[in-house]
Design brief:
The chain has about 200 residues and is of the alpha+beta class. It is built from 5 helices and 7 strands. It has a 5-stranded mixed beta barrel. Helix 2 runs parallel beside helix 5 (about 165-195).
């Protein structure tokens, strides 16, 4: 347990190492970010849902104040750092704060062949989507976070990955996800090419 961590509920799932640009405009968050810019401390990003906030989130470090407006609004660039479990929510301030418990992965390595296969699937998905991105190395310690953080995956699936305490387990989950996703992407691209032609196969 540590001292209370300022919490920022958002409709996103932040992963360690992933960038998250934010436009700060609500008075309570202008207050929160203003304090954090002075103290150089982090805040917690937790997924906001209709039922409340998720029980697991990720701390965000403010790496740049991109722009400050006359009315106090701010554009900031943050980056995910450590995962945590919310043990208790405190509502004494204008913004939420939480007693949190930080956690890390279990000490195990992902089989290299699975990491290589995941990268191949990820590269194919990017190509089918018409996107280009630098492919991370297969030896990357948190390959799953790098991939999931760069893709527009379903938020429920992203939250599931964030909670997992095993990189090997996350890689397996991503492999299964891509095996379901890629066939539909291939069909969509084929249909689009056919529609762009003269209607003949």
């Amino acid at each position: 347990m540590t001292k209370l961590l300022p919490l920022f509920p958002l409709e996103v799932v932040l992963f360690p190492g992933s960038p998250l640009p934010l436009h700060i405009f609500e008075p309570r968050y202008k207050e929160m970010v203003g304090e954090l810019l002075e103290t150089k401390e982090r805040f917690g990003v937790v997924r906001s849902t209709a039922e409340g906030i998720a029980g697991v989130g990720c701390t965000a470090e403010i790496v740049a104040l991109a722009k400050q407006y006359d009315d106090g609004r701010m554009d900031i660039v943050t980056e995910g750092r450590e995962r945590f479990e919310v043990m208790r929510v405190d509502t004494e301030r204008s913004f939420l704060r939480g007693e949190v418990l930080y956690f890390v992965d279990e000490p195990e390595r992902t089989p290299r062949d699975k990491a290589k296969r995941l990268l191949e699937q990820h590269t194919e998905a990017l190509t089918l989507l018409g996107a280009t991105a630098e492919t991370p190395p297969a030896e990357e310690k948190e390959l799953s976070f790098l991939i999931a953080g760069s893709m527009p995956f379903d938020l429920d699936f992203k939250q599931k990955l964030l909670v997992m305490r095993s990189e090997a387990e996350r890689v397996d989950a991503l492999l299964v996800y891509y095996e379901t996703l890629l066939p539909s992407l291939r069909r969509a691209v084929k249909a689009r090419k056919k529609a762009g032609g003269n209607g003949h196969v």
